[in-house]
Design goal:
Elements (H helix, E strand, L loop, with lengths): L8 E7 L6 H8 L7 E8 L5 H9 L6 E6 L7 H15 L5 E4 L4 E3 L3 H8 L5 E8 L12 H21 L18 E4 H6 L10 H11 L4 E11 L11 H8 L14 H10 L20 H15 L41
Parallel strand pairs: 1-2, 1-4, 2-3, 6-8
Antiparallel strand pairs: 4-7, 5-8, 6-7
Helix pairs in contact: 5-10
Enzyme class: transferase
Subcellular location: Cell membrane
GO molecular function, one term: glycosyltransferase activity
């Protein structure tokens, strides 16, 4: 295959059994795909007519589309699909400057492409927002508003902590802080610098943004770049949005988002000299039950209120008095102690 040489923007879309939604996804993109944009749809491990429907769309005016129909081995999935689409763009588009990605069950906002390219003139990576399809959102009316409020409150506190004390995370202040594969963008240089998407079944979106921050790249969480995602409760990737929505409808005892570590773990990391970069990926066994969030909110809010006067201080500049005593941390499973980083003096 050979793409027109002047195209500089690739849009990568993984799709698995998306025959019902791929038409709406491509219809939303088509008016935005001018002569600099090429769309690569990576249909993977699919047994419906996703590829057939997409190839029919590729034959109509308005969208320059390549459809890859692939099968990945077990243990690979959406991460491998995004990575493959990006690899094809890098190989076939010699003037490629920016890479955007969304999902096949999403409808991008009317100026999604233009706004994404605009932000990538100033930043290395762009994280948009995900809203829910209003035609489908009624199915979520039964979720407990108290648990949702607690999760949102704790998320704001965690973002504030990272904005103040984590490396290359100051931009998180007052941002949505999301890093969804449904709305990401990268400059070519930044994408290649961190080795691209990891070929993993889930979490490849947060992983690449975390890697970019760790590499010192500029990440921007934009409120004016957004997509509408489906509210389906049976998803294509384990641990994806469908699982999250289904868990929230299950009642008490579901687990908070896996980017939200418990407060004691966060403050212990801060005590030892480093939070690492946002976004976090919390192992399943360490996720917080949502009905336990109030204790974590109280602990983290108390620390942030107390340390507000030294908001710009680096973690190693914190005094012992700024951190609550360990006995105030919410209980969590005991673990082997981690060695201190070289040159770090533990606060006690």
């Amino acid at each position: 295959m050979s793409f027109e040489r002047w195209k500089d923007t690739a849009i990568i879309i993984p799709a698995r059994n998306e025959a019902e939604r791929i038409g709406d996804c491509l219809t939303a993109l088509a008016p935005q795909c001018n002569d600099r944009v090429h769309v690569i749809l990576v249909v993977n491990n699919t047994d419906d007519e996703t590829a057939k429907i997409a190839k029919a769309a590729a034959g109509r005016p308005g969208i320059d589309l390549t459809v890859l129909d692939l099968t990945f081995p077990p243990g690979m999935g959406v991460g491998a699909a995004r990575r493959k689409g990006c690899a094809v763009a890098l190989e076939q588009m010699p003037h490629l400057r920016q890479i955007l990605t969304t999902d096949a069950d999403c409808r991008v906002s009317p100026d999604w492409v233009a706004r994404s390219i605009h932000h990538l003139q100033r930043f290395d990576a762009l994280c948009g927002r995900v809203t829910l399809n209003p035609e489908e959102a009624a199915c979520l009316a039964q979720q407990d508003p108290m648990f949702e409020a607690h999760e949102m409150a704790y998320r704001r506190l965690v973002l504030t902590l990272y904005a103040r004390h984590a490396p290359n995370c100051a931009d998180l202040h007052d941002s949505h802080g999301e890093a969804p594969g449904a709305s990401l963008g990268f400059t070519r240089d930044a994408y290649e610098a961190v080795g691209g998407f990891a070929p993993i079944p889930c979490g490849e979106d947060r992983a690449i943004i975390r890697d970019l921050r760790a590499a010192g790249r500029r990440v921007h969480h934009a409120d004016d770049v957004w997509v509408e995602a489906s509210c389906r409760l049976v998803g294509r990737a384990a641990g994806g949005m469908a699982d999250t929505l289904r868990n929230r409808l299950s009642g008490a005892g579901y687990l908070a988002d896996d980017c939200l570590p418990d407060a004691g773990c966060l403050l212990e990391k801060l005590r030892r000299g480093g939070l690492g970069c946002w976004p976090v990926q919390v192992p399943e066994a360490e996720r917080i039950p949502v009905d336990e969030l109030p204790a974590h909110i109280a602990l983290l809010r108390g620390f942030l209120d107390k340390s507000a006067a030294c908001e710009t201080a680096a973690p190693l500049a914190l005094e012992a008095a700024d951190l609550p005593p360990r006995e105030n941390f919410p209980a969590r499973p005991a673990k082997a102690s981690e060695p201190l980083a070289a040159g770090v003096v533990e606060l006690s």
